[in-house]
Design goal:
- This protein has 359 residues and is of the alpha/beta class.
- It has 2 domains: 188 residues, NAD(P)-binding Rossmann-like Domain (Rossmann fold, 3-Layer(aba) Sandwich); 137 residues, N-(1-d-carboxylethyl)-l-norvaline Dehydrogenase, domain 2.
- The protein is 43% helix and 17% strand.
- Strands 5-2-1-6-7-8-11-12 form an 8-stranded mixed sheet, sandwiched between helices.
- The longest helix has 20 residues.
- It is globular, with a radius of gyration of 19 Å.
Length: 359
């Protein structure tokens, strides 16, 4: 079924989604607030898509810096932008949302809950379903101003919905664009599927010296050695323990499957990721989204969920302490922590009730 889809943002995942969903036959509107950066796409009316099938031009229905124009009539709103952009996007989109729309955050970092709260706070009463999954639907990198290279597409996308009472409605809409989506419960369950706060903080911390020494460094190639993997696996066990403490069942998508077999979200993708060369890049240890999004927001969220659930999480808290050491601030009470979101005073039954019914 052909849908009108709005894609909000200008990053790697946004251009990949625009090209991929447009090629699938959907009416895609790509919004980016930076009108100057978007101009080359507007002039061409297309994005250049590169993948295992070759290189081709994929026309878009619309490329615009007007968010109202992008959202008008859209059944599905896809926001693959980093979590650090979610608050601004929520305030910009709030006046233009309408009943029945589904907003999909791949991934979300609990953004489905946070953005819904911000939209309501901005005065919107639109009856919208929010959803988030554990990873981007693509391993992708932009190659220039309007070209994007997709190395791998996700095979499995566990997705939580907020409020969870809208799960069936939301998943039916999202599956028309992403058939790999399957339900995993509420927004907290979806957020605790997020792979970024598990895979990226250990890679950043344990590769800090080469990242600052070399102009380009592949943290997924030379940077993924046995000691790093061991820390990552133990951090992921903490994530799974938190999920189980909240009563969420399998599959938990252990990150070890990303390296060891084809049962993870992307299938057998790690070798393809390294072979592409797209992740041999310059990474600023202070400003890269692996820090600003996956550590300051995502890992702080995971650590706070562990505190709330009474789960011992020494790796999560230790990595936060080290990153806080070179950033010069305490990350334990980050803006996505239970404490900052005023969820820490709730009991688990009340928290789960709110996640089901909405605030």
């Amino acid at each position: 079924m052909v849908m009108k889809i709005a894609i909000l943002g200008g990053g790697h995942g946004c251009y990949a989604a625009a090209a991929d969903l447009s090629e699938a036959g959907h009416e895609v509107r790509l919004w980016r607030r930076d009108a100057a950066a978007l101009q080359v796409v507007r002039q061409a009316g297309a994005v250049t898509l590169k993948d295992s099938g070759g290189v081709r031009e994929v026309p878009l229905a619309l490329a615009t810096a007007d968010i109202a124009e992008a959202l008008r009539g859209a059944a599905l709103v896809v926001i693959p932008s980093p979590a650090v952009a979610q608050e601004d996007i929520a305030r910009l989109m709030a006046p233009h949302l309408v009943d029945g729309q589904v907003v999909f955050l791949p991934p979300g970092t609990f953004g489905s809950f946070v953005m819904a709260r911000l939209v309501r706070g901005a005065g919107s009463r639109a009856d919208v379903a929010w959803a988030e999954t554990g990873t981007l639907p693509y391993l992708a990198r932009k190659h220039g101003a309007r070209a994007v290279n997709i190395t791998v597409r996700a095979l499995r996308l566990p997705t939580g919905v907020y409020p969870a009472r809208k799960e069936q409605q939301a998943l039916e809409v999202i599956r028309q664009a992403y058939p790999a989506v399957h339900g995993c419960g509420d927004a907290l369950s979806g957020a605790l599927m997020n792979a970024g706060p598990v895979i990226h903080p250990p890679l950043m911390v344990m590769n800090a010296a080469p990242l600052q020494h070399f102009e380009r460094w592949d943290i997924h190639g030379e940077g993924t050695q046995r000691a790093v993997r061991e820390v990552t696996d133990r951090l992921d066990l903490e994530r799974i323990a938190v999920r189980e403490a909240f009563g969420y069942g399998a599959p938990h998508y252990p990150l070890a499957d990303h390296y060891n077999n084809d049962r993870w979200m992307y299938g057998d993708a790690h070798k393809k990721l390294v072979k592409s060369g797209d992740w041999r890049e310059n990474i600023d240890l202070y400003t890269h989204r692996y820090i600003t999004e996956d550590t300051e927001l995502g890992l702080a969220f995971l650590a706070s969920a562990a505190r709330f659930a009474g789960v011992d999480a020494p790796i999560a808290h230790g990595l936060l302490a080290i990153v806080g050491g070179f950033l010069g601030r305490d990350l334990r009470r980050g803006p996505r922590s239970f404490e900052a979101l005023a969820l820490d005073a709730l009991g688990t039954p009340e928290l789960l009730r709110r996640l089901h019914h909405g605030e």
